[in-house]
Design goal:
By secondary structure, the chain is α/β, with parallel strands linked by helices. The protein has a single domain (3-225), classed as Rossmann fold (3-Layer(aba) Sandwich), CATH 3.40.50.720. It is built from eight helices and seven strands. The protein has a seven-stranded parallel sheet with strand order 3-2-1-4-5-6-7, with helices on both faces. Helix 1 links the parallel strand 1 (3-7) and strand 2 (27-32). The longest helix is centred in the middle third of the chain and has 28 residues, at 93-120. The chain starts with a strand and ends with a strand.
Length: 229
């Protein structure tokens, strides 16, 4: 049985990924914030660890324990992140630092330990980050400056890790969804045409395929999932 590590499992995309990988008979390992539990039931047992992913030392300590307990990590889905709006006039340094901490540092601290573990494994491993359309498209980035800047670092991190992982069969990908059809997004944008949004379940299916043996031929580091938008 393969092991998949999922951060951000409490969110809509995280829930969809937990469900999808359980269906494919993975042992699912989730990392939640301190004192948090999954808010939904799962079809089988899930290993849960709690830590503050914005704390580098705490993250490393937790991941060392995860590796000790489970021996290998075949797939890692680094889904933790957050969003904020703001243009150049309303975005200050504090907001930029907050977004970088939440969107980039949480991914970097986790990837740093997980990449090292995967590099030691005979079969390597797959790491999936979550990017954003505003980080790729300047037009889409208007009004979400700090968020777009923080996500830009994700693409560069995946690119560099792919170079480092070539000889060790460690592949890093960035999934780039458009607006995800979640309850929170529907509340935030009540007048939007939700028919153009992408379902979290669809993204989860694409992630599972891309990280499976069937998707082993995929070498593009950026996987765009824009739906009809």
């Amino acid at each position: 049985m393969k092991n998949v590590l999922i951060t951000g499992a409490g969110g809509a995309l995280g829930k969809a990924c937990v469900t999808e990988f359980l269906k494919k008979d993975y042992q699912v390992i989730v990392i939640l914030s301190p004192n948090k539990k999954l808010s939904y039931a799962t079809s089988s047992s899930v290993s849960i660890y709690n830590t503050d992913l914005m704390d580098e030392a705490a993250t490393n300590t937790t991941l060392v324990q995860v590796i000790k307990d489970h021996k290998t990590i075949d797939v890692a889905l680094l889904l933790v992140g957050g969003f904020t709006s703001g243009n150049i006039d309303t975005t200050d340094g504090a907001l930029v630092r907050k977004m970088i901490s939440l969107n980039f540092e949480t991914a970097f601290y986790t990837a740093r330990t997980i990449f090292g573990q995967m590099a030691k494994q005979p079969n390597g491993g797959r790491i999936v980050f979550v990017g954003s359309r505003p980080a790729l498209d300047a037009k889409a980035g208007k009004g979400v400056l700090a968020y777009a800047l923080s996500k830009t670092l994700i693409f560069k991190l995946a690119e560099i890790l792919n170079e480092e992982g070539k000889e060790k069969n460690v592949i890093s990908s960035v999934i780039v969804p458009s607006i995800i059809d979640t309850p929170d997004n529907r509340i935030a944008m009540p007048k939007a045409n939700t028919g153009k949004w992408v379902k979290p379940e669809s993204i989860a299916e694409i992630i599972e395929f891309a990280t499976s043996e069937k998707g082993s031929a995929i070498r593009e580091s950026v996987i765009k999932v824009y739906g009809n938008s």
